[in-house]
């Protein structure tokens, strides 16, 4: 579509001034992203409702200890820092500083990746200690500790924990891929492919992330299609829109962290 | 900071595939949605025919399908409901006509996000294929009704269709949710950002308002259904227990524990009630447009109509509990839900009053679109009046699992919305295909369909009050219900006639598409922007210019004007308004 001749032959619509002023002074992509976030917040809202509903009607266990909370706090710090670097990236884009836009976006992606890796290690640890869904792949010789008891007596605990955090982890992963496409464009595709392949080969096959890493493959295919269908340059607006998404993902974590982690901790 | 309107320039495509299949043009996508819904409505109608035949002649051996077993009746019921609600009532008025007409009516060259628009159609198409596939897998289609209540829907071994068939059903709905989100987002952005100069919010045709409000409802409701569906899939395939308590199926203890089927009911109806308005609001918009055009009068109470639709949308999110009166809900909650539900009667009555006021002393032209719009008002009143009955918890507990509810929602949500779709089809067909539909056959189709739908659905109210239970596949085994079989037989004959009459519509549609008389640019002498452009409109709708709007949408019979209508883009001002 962006072929020069086609562009030239294109009907010249969308000229500024031909339309009523947008209702909130916002350009279409920004409105679109806000609307998506409104819808997505209801998707998360429904999951949090399911969590609260189960929590109210069940004698809820509190098996998390200092180690989990420390880890989750570091993850929270990563996400909060990533919001700061994202804001700096948007500012850089708005003043037209391409190099720093890319640097700040890469920093944001680094924090996001750190969050995913920490989260993945924590999942692996919890599954190893026996926290599991009945139909989940279980590692050989999973422990029979407190978390195994919890999984047996209160299946809702593991179900809501994995359901909520998996949905959020998926959103963070999509966010990192999104930012990668905005920051690096086609250069990002081989990097993403390499990470997927490395993850698939290096993560042992009894670990859920051996299969979960395929999210990156799906992201790679979609990103490739998008980049080849619409090979345009990204401007400050695109960076700002990606920033909206990223801050939303952070905001969701600020609900999940207290609800899922802090309220399930035993203070002794 | 400068905030330019999104600039999306795409050329008119050349090749067949880019022009008619993977098209970015909202007009082509609208027609694609229309034909998808047309296919779906015939599938859904065929299923209902099988159901009606099975109820009266339970042992009949039919050609191709053979003898229908009771559990297959439940599959038919599930698939009829799901296909009709999602792939007809949600797809045709919003995806079809909304897509085709909304950008033209606000003076935009296309939707704000054409690629997203194409994706949303093809995603819907995949969803349709997936749900049809449920018929052909081992065990067949699911049994749990379109509402998919657990534990039946959440346990694989609960019935013959609850294996792969139910998984496909949920997957299809999840796909449909994503498609609807993309569509809704596009509609809202387009309405907010791409209105031509002078098209202020209070100059938008009521059709645009209705699609806009419908899109807001869809945006907020489908996200919740998506979550509910994901949790249901987890319950079915990962062994979680969000919706399933300790349960024993055919003497076998399931591994589930501690969940609550009520959680599904809350999540489902938080989506499900707005979904009812997603189906009916576009019909209201079309009816307003058509009544005003064919009465040659401005719509009575334009602002009241807009606020009434906004109020209906707003209350739509607060009344989901009235579907759950049977669940042992606290009487205090039931009271609150009951009051809020009856509040919806107020804006609905305002709309009905205004429709009648629009026709009052108008120079009415009884063309087919007008007949269908009047039919819509009639069905809206008939179906709506049983609403306040069902809003009473005490009455609802008596009537909920009877044919009374079936009659209620078929009249108001099913057939009224379908009449809206028919009105829209007859009204915009000249613009979409460049030819007129046959008037005589249109009228014959209308009168058979109107009489037929009343003959099918009115008796259901009496059946319900007499205690006939819904979802039963046959009535021969229960003594007091056998006495009602003659009425059911009458309804089945009425259904056969009504369904046969729909072939008049299809033949008229396809015949007129190729052989009908050529349509002028403005055959109905209407005022809105789609009638200012050529028939059918060029690729960018207005041939490279963006129209400028000077008038409200329904200026008929303006004193001093040369004709009895003033087009929205007419630059002249007339003294008397």
Structural class label of chain A: mainly alpha
Number of discrete helical segments of chain A: 10
User: How much helix, percentage-wise, in residues of chain A?
Assistant: over 70%
**What overall geometry of chain A do the principal axes of the alpha carbons give?**
globular
What fraction strand of chain A?
under 5%
Number of strands of chain B: 4
- What does the radius of gyration of chain A come to? 21 Å
Can you give keywords for this protein?
heterodimer, A: 268 residues, mainly alpha, Four Helix Bundle (Hemerythrin (Met), subunit A), 10 helices, B: 577 residues, Cytochrome C Oxidase, Chain A, two-stranded antiparallel ribbon, 16 helices, 62% helix, disordered N terminus
Describe the structure.
- The complex is a heterodimer of chains A (268) and B (577).
- Chain A is mostly helical and 268 residues long.
- Chain A is 73% helix and 0% strand.
- Chain A has a single domain, classed as Up-down Bundle (Four Helix Bundle (Hemerythrin (Met), subunit A)), CATH 1.20.120.80.
- Chain A has ten helices and no strands.
- In chain A, helix 6 runs parallel beside helix 9.
- The termini of chain A are far apart.
- The N terminus of chain A is likely disordered.
- Helices cover 62% and strands 1% of the residues of chain B.
- In chain B, the strands form two sheets. Chain B has a two-stranded antiparallel ribbon with strand order 1-2. A two-stranded antiparallel ribbon of chain B has the order 3-4.
- In chain B, helix 3 packs across helix 7, helix 10 packs parallel to helix 14 and helix 14 runs antiparallel to helix 16.
- Chain B is globular, with a radius of gyration of 24 Å.
- Chains A and B meet through helix 1, helix 2 and helix 6 of A and helix 5, helix 6 and helix 7 of B.
């Amino acid at each position: 579509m962006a072929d020069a001749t086609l562009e030239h032959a294109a009907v010249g619509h969308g000229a500024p001034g031909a339309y009523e002023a947008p209702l909130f002074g916002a350009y279409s992509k920004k409105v679109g992203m806000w609307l998506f976030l409104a819808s997505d917040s209801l998707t998360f809202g429904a999951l949090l409702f399911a969590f609260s509903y189960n929590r109210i009607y069940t004698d809820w266990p509190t098996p998390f200890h200092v180690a989990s909370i420390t880890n989750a706090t570091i993850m929270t710090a990563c996400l909060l820092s990533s919001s700061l670097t994202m804001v700096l990236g948007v500012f850089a884009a708005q003043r037209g500083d391409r190099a720093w836009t890319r640097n700040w976006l890469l920093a944001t992606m680094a924090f996001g990746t750190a969050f995913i890796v920490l989260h993945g290690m924590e999942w692996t640890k919890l599954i190893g200690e026996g926290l599991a869904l009945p139909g989940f792949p279980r590692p050989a010789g999973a422990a029979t500790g407190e978390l195994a008891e919890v999984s047996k007596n209160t299946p809702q605990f593991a179900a809501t924990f994995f359901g909520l955090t998996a949905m959020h982890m998926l959103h963070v992963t999509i966010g990192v891929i999104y930012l990668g496409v905005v920051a690096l464009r086609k250069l990002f595709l081989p990097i993403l492919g390499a990470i997927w392949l490395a993850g698939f080969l290096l993560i042992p096959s009894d670990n859920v992330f051996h299969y979960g890493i395929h999210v990156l493959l799906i992201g790679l295919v979609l990103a490739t299609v998008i980049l080849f269908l619409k090979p345009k340059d990204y401007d400050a607006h695109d960076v700002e829109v990606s920033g909206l998404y990223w801050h939303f993902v952070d905001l969701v974590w600020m609900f999940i962290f207290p609800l899922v982690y802090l309220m399930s901790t035993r203070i002794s | 900071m400068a905030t330019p309107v999104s600039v999306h320039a795409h050329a008119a495509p050349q090749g067949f595939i880019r022009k008619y299949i993977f098209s970015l043009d909202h007009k082509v996508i609208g027609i694609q949605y229309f034909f998808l819904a047309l296919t779906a409505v015939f599938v859904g109608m065929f299923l209902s025919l099988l159901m009606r035949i099975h109820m009266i002649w339970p042992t009949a051996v039919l050609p191709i399908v053979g003898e229908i077993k009771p559990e297959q009746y439940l599959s038919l019921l599930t698939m009829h409901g799901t296909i009709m609600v999602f792939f007809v009532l949600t797809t045709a008025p919003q995806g079809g006509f909304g897509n085709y007409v909304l950008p033209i009516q606000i003076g935009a060259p296309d939707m704000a996000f054409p690629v997203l628009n194409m994706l949303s159609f093809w995603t819907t198409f995949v969803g349709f294929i997936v749900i049809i596939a449920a018929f052909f897998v081992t065990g067949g289609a699911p049994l749990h009704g379109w509402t998919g209540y657990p534990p039946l829907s959440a346990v694989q071994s609960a019935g013959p269709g609850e294996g792969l068939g139910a998984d496909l059903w949920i997957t299809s709905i999840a796909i449909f949710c994503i498609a609807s989100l993309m569509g809704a987002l596009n509609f809202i952005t387009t309405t907010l950002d791409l209105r031509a100069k002078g098209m202020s919010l209070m100059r938008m045709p009521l059709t645009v308002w209705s699609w806009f409000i419908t899109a807001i409802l869809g945006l907020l409701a489908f996200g919740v259904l998506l979550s509910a569906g994901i949790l249901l899939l987890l319950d079915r395939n990962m062994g979680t227990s969000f919706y399933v308590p300790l349960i024993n199926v055919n003497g076998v203890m399931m591994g589930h524990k501690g969940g609550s089927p009520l959680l599904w009911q809350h999540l489902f109806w938080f989506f499900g009630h707005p979904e009812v308005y997603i189906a009916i609001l576009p019909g209201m918009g079309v009816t307003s447009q058509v009544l005003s055009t064919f009465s040659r009068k401005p719509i009575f109470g334009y602002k009241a109509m807009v606020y009434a639709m906004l109020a209906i949308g707003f209350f739509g999110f607060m009344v989901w509990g009235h579907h759950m009166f049977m669940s042992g809900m606290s009487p205090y909650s039931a009271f609150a839900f009951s009051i809020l539900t009856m509040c919806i009667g107020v804006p609905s009555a305002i709309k009905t009053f205004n429709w009648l006021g629009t026709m009052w002393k108008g120079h009415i032209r009884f063309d087919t679109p007008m007949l269908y719009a009047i039919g819509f008002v009639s069905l809206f009143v008939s179906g709506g009046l049983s609403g306040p009955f069902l809003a009473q918890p005490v009455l609802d507990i008596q009537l909920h699992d009877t044919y009374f509810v079936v009659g209620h929602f078929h009249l108001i949500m099913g057939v009224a919305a379908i009449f809206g779709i028919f009105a829209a089809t007859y009204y915009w067909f000249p613009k979409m295909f460049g030819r007129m539909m046959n008037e005589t056959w249109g009228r014959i189709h209308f009168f058979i369909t109107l009489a037929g739908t009343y003959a099918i659905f009115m008796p259901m109210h009496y059946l319900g009050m007499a205690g006939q239970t819904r979802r039963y596949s046959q009535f021969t085994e229960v003594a007091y219900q056998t006495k009602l079989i003659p009425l059911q037989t009458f309804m089945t004959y009425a259904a056969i006639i009504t369904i046969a009459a729909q072939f008049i519509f299809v033949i008229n549609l396809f015949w007129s598409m190729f052989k009908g008389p050529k349509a002028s640019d403005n055959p109905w002498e209407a005022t809105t922007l789609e009638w200012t452009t050529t028939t059918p409109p060029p690729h960018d709708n207005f041939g490279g210019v963006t129209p400028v709007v000077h008038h409200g949408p329904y200026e008929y019979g303006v004193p001093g004007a040369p004709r009895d209508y003033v087009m929205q883009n007419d630059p002249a001002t007339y003294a008397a308004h």
